[in-house]
Amino acid sequence: MRRLRACLGAAAAVGLAAAGTTALVAGSASGATSALSNRWYAAAPYLMPLDNDPPDPAAIMDATGLKAFQLAFVLAPNGGGCSPTWGGTAAVSSDTAVQSVVNTIRAKGGDVSVSIGGYGGTKLGQVCSDAAATAAAYQQVITKYGLHAIDFDLEEPEYENTAAIKNEIGAAKLLQQNNPGLYVSVTTAGTADGTGWFGKQMLLEAKSQGFTPNNFSIMPFDGGFNGAASQTSALTNFNQILQSTFGWDQATAYAHEGFSGMNGRSDTGEYFTQADFQTVLDYATSHNMDRFTFWSLNRDRQCTPADNGGRTSGTCSSVAQNSGDFAKYSVKFAGDTPPSSTPTPTPTPTPTPPGTGCKPAWSSTAVYTVGNEVSYNSHNWKAKWWTQNETPVASEWGVWQDEGAC
């Protein structure tokens, strides 16, 4: 799950032996570029182009060698309807802002994928009448930007909706059929066991529809993870789930498996450093996994003491780093060599001490919506979605996100 999306703004070997070049040719108002290799689309980190203080993609490309970006997120309109928007507010049909970002990236020899869904918000699969209508909405995005790749980020709360997931998987299958060579990734929540019940149901839906994307990726964070060892264990367990679900052998399952991490401090206070990313990268490449990405480029820079305060941020990582440190692991996964950088700076952020800064007390009668903050049992909590009379308690699937002692 990509917790910061809704809260703060609204988942082959290095030698490239298995990497191909997609054959998709799509129309676009600005003209689509030639496709990059699949390995680059598999390595594209997430970037919110309209929210969370978006960094300059051209500067990222110069500093890190990155060529591919995963733009997020396409949602249904906040006011209702089956048409694609950026973040529920900016219609794709009339967009110029994101198109400008795409043009900048392509002018420097790079390309983009677009991610649909994410954590929170209303997804097109929830409101479109069927898979065909859902696919037609996404086809507008593919055509508008001349896409060679697309990501289906299926998580809270949509993946708890059987009909919505049926629409999304059906749409992904139709897009794959109607756009030859389209690189399709499907991203969902990770757990210590690989993925949870809803993730497994999504895989079964894909199996029932005969749909196989380039990869199924899990997000092993925000579920009680503790560094790289817990993440690689989850990836091993997820591989076994893919084997048992689709009847694949281990190698085939790894060839359809992806990792989507979170750089720095996660929403639940886990920390993933550069060393953790290197360990998972080594695991991914040694097992010939298909995808290695992370949330997000907006966070791939060090916080200042003023903007961090020991909390998770949508605009910085909350760990000591140089700007672009984490993007370089994606570059390595793609088979390229990133430019050298200066040593990682000494940590400067100071966590907020416990016992201070409590939010207003939780009330059983009050109505809370996404982003509302309360205090309960000497902890601050943030609502993930609409709720009333649900007591704040630490739970991976619960409505309340624990923000730490106060």
List the main descriptive attributes of the protein structure presented here.
ten-stranded mixed beta sheet; globular; single chain; 13 helices; 406 residues; alpha/beta; three-stranded antiparallel beta sheet
Detailed description of the structure:
This protein starts with a helix and ends with a strand. Strands 1, 2, 3, 4, 5, 6, 7, 8, 9 and 12 form a 10-stranded mixed sheet that branches. A 3-stranded antiparallel sheet has the order 14-15-17, with no helix packed on it. Strands 10-11 form a two-stranded antiparallel sheet. Helix 7 links the parallel strand 6 and strand 7. It has 406 residues and is α/β, with parallel strands linked by helices. The protein contains 13 helices and 17 strands. It has helices at residues 4-8, 38-42, 57-64, 97-107, 124-127, 131-145, 162-178, 197-209, 227-246, 250-255, 274-286, 305-308, 327-333; strands spanning 46-47, 68-75, 85-86, 90-91, 111-117, 149-153, 183-189, 215-219, 257-262, 264-265, 271-272, 291-295, 367-368, 373-376, 379-383, 387-388, 400-405.
Mean pLDDT: 88
Q: Could you tell me the number of beta strands?
A: 17
Give the terminus-to-terminus CA distance: 25 Å
Beta-strand share of residues: 15-25%
Radius of gyration: 20 Å
Give the number of helices.
13
Please mark out the parts with pLDDT under 50 across 5 or more consecutive residues, or reply none.
Answer: 5-30, 348-355
Q: How would you spell out the order of helices and strands?
A: HHEHEEEHEHHEHEHEHHEEEHEHHEEEEE
Sheet with the most strands, sense and barrel status: 10 strands, mixed
State the secondary-structure class.
alpha/beta
Q: Percentage of helical residues?
A: 25-40%
Shape designation: globular
